[in-house]
Amino acid sequence: MNTIANIDMKVIGLTEFNSIMKKVERISAKSLSIFIIDKEHSIEVYSKNTNVKIVPGSVVKLLTLFLVFDLNISLREIVRIKKNNLIVGSGYNLLEDDLITINDLLKNMIFKSSNTSAEVLKEVIEEKTNISYEEHAKKIINKLGMKLTNIVNSHGLYKSKQYTTVDDLLKLVINILENKKIESFLFYTHQSIVVQRNKSYINIDFESDERVFIKTGTLFPNVFNSVQIVKMRNNYLIACLGYSKNDQSRLIDQEMINDLIGVI
Predict the structure, then answer these.
(1) Domain edges within the chain
(2) 2-262 under CATH 2.170.190.11, yes or no
(3) Nearest to 177 by CA among 222, 238, 262, 107
(4) How many Cα atoms occupy the beta-carbon half-sphere of 154 within 13 Å?
(5) pTM of the entire structure?
């Protein structure tokens, strides 16, 4: 069922309403949730099939990010990459015995989608708390009311019994934005990631945007999800997309979300 709700027609008018509907109806994602939030309110712009279970892919890394900040782990701490931490796939840019700060691991995980960085952070969490990552994930999922989510690894590579919904992703994103330290981390122009390799320093460049944050989850053949946060002064437009048709369609879907800014 598709819904558009909670928008005051006296405020936006029929023309703007029709413009919003034309844009969102062209989005290819199988499930979709679009919200605007500020310090006091949340407004649903559009939703579609929000409780359909999706294979999350790398959007799981947002939960890993949340856990590191929620546990107040020092971002200045330096860790050594171990051979068993190395995971192929996205962001495969670290080597055994590399030295890197927690802060740069987070940057590498979120902005370069490094599976290895997520695995190292999982290990850091477990060593500091003597509690498994999965147990931490369950506690956070229950605390945030994510009723149709089960997370069993830190990076999002396919695992049976790992699933979520765009409705639950929305709950996670809202809580991320309520944490000012995480919000600042996501919307900050970071410097390059620095890795000490042997006796040299390696700089890993990446792009971050002070206006738009996007975390994608891709698992072939047919998983093309994304979480998109667009900053509008003190407000945020959040879009959680589940199963866009393909990678190109997902990019088009994301552009359509950005285009909504002009009519909301």
Answers:
(1) 2-262
(2) no
(3) 238
(4) 27
(5) 0.92
